[in-house]
Specification:
Shape: elongated
Largest sheet: 2 strands, antiparallel
Order of helices and strands: EEH
Number of helices: 1
Number of strands: 2
Mean pLDDT: 83
Distance between the termini: 66 Å
Radius of gyration: 24 Å
Helix content: 25-40%
Strand content: 5-15%
Strand order of the largest sheet: 1-2
Amino acid sequence: MAFPIKVCVVCSEEFELKPDKPGFANRCPECSAPESNDDPLDKQRMDADERKSASEANEARRQAMRNLLYRKDS
């Protein structure tokens, strides 16, 4: 069984679309390589105060949604 022949949308070269190919189905393997912009160093670490304030904000959001969804209209 032959694999379907596709044309890369980036470089316009033909390639075989094989099962379990990493990346996008409309890009060749060379153009589907992960970009270097996904550095884990870009993510900022949160200290204890930031985690606590984020947790409190999330709890307030959950409480507000719960009140909106389950309140009884009288």
